Amino acid sequence: MPHAPVSPAAPAGIPALLTLFQPLARTGFLPPTAPLLDLPGPFQRLLDAIAALAPAYQGSGVRAALLDLDAALGDRRDDARQLSPAQQEALLSATAILMHLFRWNAVPVPPVRFQERPAFPPHLRALFRDLSAAHDLPACGTMHTLKYLNWRSDALTPGEPYHAGQVQAGQVRIAHNWHVTPAGDDRDLAGQLDLWIQTFVLTEARGQAVLTAAAQALAAAHHHDRPALEAALEALHAAVQAMTRQINALMRFRVVRSDLWRVFIQPTFGWGLPVDGVPGGPVLEGASGLQLGGTQVADLALGVGFDSNLGRALRHSRASMTPPQRALLNAWEPQRNVIRAAVLDWGGSRARDAFEASLDDLRLWRVSHRERGAVYLRGDGREHVMASTGTQLDPGTPHEQAFRDLMNERIGETQARTLRGPDRPADL
After folding, report:
1. Iron as a keyword (predicted)?
2. What is the pLDDT of residues 232-241, one digit of tens each?
């Protein structure tokens, strides 16, 4: 159906905003080419070192071996600048993992390590900072570097373009695992880390459909096209369902074990060290679920605000995303009420039902996340240290109620965008 004339009230910024979807159209917040699994010349030694260090990471520690590797590596920044973009991303991921291994040294992590500021291997540190700056990312591991560049799929060719729909459960696994499962050990820490990486890669793959449907809904709202708005919001509802079901399926307690996650997996992703040259400034947080792009896209499509404590942390987390992702989310936020306003003003009952169903599913996922997250944080009931990942929970203190409070604020912020009206709240 041809588009109707543009409504006089249509925001002038929407056409420019829609162009920001284009670099993310195929893969959403995953990298645009399948991660490379090998690197040329001396850089392959860095990839190989990840698995080689795994026994020491669960033993006496990795620092001595990493200092030896660093001395053999030397200054390779000029060589790294000659690599292709895909090779640079693979190298960025490898250096991020090795920096995290050095930062924590061994698991379980002793409490003193949270306050320690180690002297990192100089060549590795320089290479990592150079690559991070070139990609406009903070100099610590992020969701992008530790997870989204660290997977392989039986269905994809490394280094080649793909579509997020090709990223399916049963085919995805971690590319470079820094845990090992000793013979006779039933904890399977390598398998647990693999599942943790899979959880986010597969969820973000489903988030690509959220992105596509949201872009279609924005375009329909801009063009005052009711049939297109109805179709886009129904597609958005299906995509939000698929995304939230994916993460819930993998975070069942018998899949990713809360006791092992809390002690061996979660500290690996924290960073908790300040930016170099900024004494007393905010710490870099590391890879956090707050950096999951698909859920932020769903929030923006449905007009959910970012004024709660967790909402502000979500906005802050964009600094750890790639520049195209950051640009889209930041430009979209001032326009986040466009779709909702169109639904209320002229969208009709079909669009209202699809919008409300999408919002309900997002809210219900947050209720589920509150309950499951509380169990993960509670663990075995004993006090454990925790790395800082976005919400700045203090190490060594009970986190369950603090997490519940944060999630309740975010659930309320999500529910506030309902079309039902204040007299018809949804049950929490």
Report:
1. yes
2. 999 999 999 9
**pLDDT digit string, tens, across residues 14-58:** 999 999 999 999 999 999 999 999 999 999 999 999 999 999 999
CA dist., res. 218 & res. 229, Å (int) = 8
Say how far apart CA 104 and CA 126 lie, in whole Å: 19
Strands 283-286 and 270-274: antiparallel
Tokens of 142: 């992020």
The fraction of the chain above a pLDDT of 70, given in percent, is 89
Least Cα distance to 248 among 424, 66, 370 occurs for 370
Phi, psi torsion values for 118, nearest 5 degrees: -75, 160
**Cα distances (angstroms) measured from residue 324 to each of 81, 154, 161, 223, 318:** 21, 27, 17, 25, 11
Whole domain around residue 83: which residue ranges?
Answer: 14-415
318 domain-assigned: yes
Contact 87, 40 (CB under 8 A): yes
pTM: 0.91
